[in-house]
Amino acid sequence: MGRAINGERIWMFSPRKTGAFLLPFILFSAVVAAATAAYGGTPAGPRAVLDGPPAGEEAGNASKLFKVKRNGKWGFIDSSGNVVIELRFDWVGSFSEDLAFVKTNGKWGYIDTTGKAVIAPTFDWAGDFSKGLAAVKANGKFGYIDRTGKYAIEPRFEEAWNFSEEATLVKAEGKFGYIDKTGKYAIEPQFGRAFIFSEGLARVVTNDLYGYIDENGKVVIAPRFEDAGDFSEGLATIESNGTWGYIDTTGKAEIAPTDDSAGHITKWLP
């Protein structure tokens, strides 16, 4: 449904009620047709499988690449169905900051958009690049590498997430905290459950209730919700007394909990 909030038109959708139809899949559908013609049969059949929307940063750009699987191996095709990167990998990720993680013979490394190996497959796991760093796993611990493959933050965490903002979520000694891009703790591990930052706020769980902290670790919205989502366009979904609504970044109810489900928020394109 559409609704005006603070004078701005907002589009809200509830995946549990209506389903979520995203623009990237319009282009994806075109590529499915191209792949069908190129490989024969349907992409979901035995010959080829397309995985998700474009494997680039801008779904609307027809020059972006798509992950594709055939005969147990992964590679990339363009929007016309032409193979751009040979199907030779055991697994591939989407391109992020012009690099994609790939798995070969049980190890993970990175390729560029030409398929050239730029970081050798030496890791036990690898994630997307974000803000110049990527989380990787080696010898049972997570750390972060730069675009040359060198460690920017040595592996010492039990779990690690991509940098979506200036601080990111890590787990150490059974607790969740946040580090900056140098590996220094911005917020010491202290939470039994926590989430990445979105629009300057992060969800944390205290005594089974959800609240929000800022990047200094200050509680800005006290834990009082049964469930909650990330902030998007200044609003977040929350569950209170079994019903869902939306709050702003101060915790004020912009849409009071009255429904049995709520979804992500984005601006409504006119």
Keywords:
4-stranded antiparallel β-sheet; disordered C terminus; mainly beta; 270 residues
Describe the model.
This protein has two helices and 27 strands. The strands form seven sheets. The protein has a four-stranded antiparallel sheet with strand order 3-4-5-6, covered by helices on one side. Strands 7-8-9-10 form a four-stranded antiparallel sheet, with no helix packed on it. A four-stranded antiparallel sheet has the order 11-12-13-14, with no helix packed on it. The chain is globular. It is mainly beta and 270 residues long. Strand 24 and strand 25 (243-247) form a beta hairpin. Residues 1-26, 39-47, 56-63 and 265-270 have low confidence and may be disordered. The two termini are 14 Å apart. The longest helix has 16 residues, at 24-39.
> Beta-strand level of the residues, as a percent range?
over 45%
Order of helices and strands: EEHHEEEEEEEEEEEEEEEEEEEEEEEEE
End-to-end separation = 14 Å
Using the CA coordinates, give the radius of gyration: 21 Å
Low-confidence stretches: 1-26, 39-47, 56-63, 265-270
Work out the helix count.
2
Give the oligomer, counting copies of the same chain as homo and different chains as hetero. single chain
Strand order of the largest sheet: 3-4-5-6
Arithmetic mean pLDDT: 82
Largest sheet: 4 strands, antiparallel
The outline comes out as: globular
Helix/strand-derived category reads mainly beta
Give the tally of β-strands.
Answer: 27
Helix content: under 10%
Question: Helices, strands, pairings?
Answer:
Elements: E1 2-5, E2 8-12, H1 15-18, H2 24-39, E3 49-50, E4 66-70, E5 73-77, E6 83-89, E7 91-92, E8 100-104, E9 107-111, E10 117-123, E11 125-130, E12 133-138, E13 141-145, E14 151-157, E15 159-160, E16 168-172, E17 175-179, E18 185-191, E19 193-198, E20 201-206, E21 209-213, E22 219-225, E23 227-228, E24 236-240, E25 243-247, E26 253-259, E27 265-267
Antiparallel strand pairs: 1-2, 2-27, 3-4, 4-5, 5-6, 7-8, 8-9, 9-10, 11-12, 12-13, 13-14, 15-16, 16-17, 17-18, 19-20, 20-21, 21-22, 23-24, 24-25, 25-26
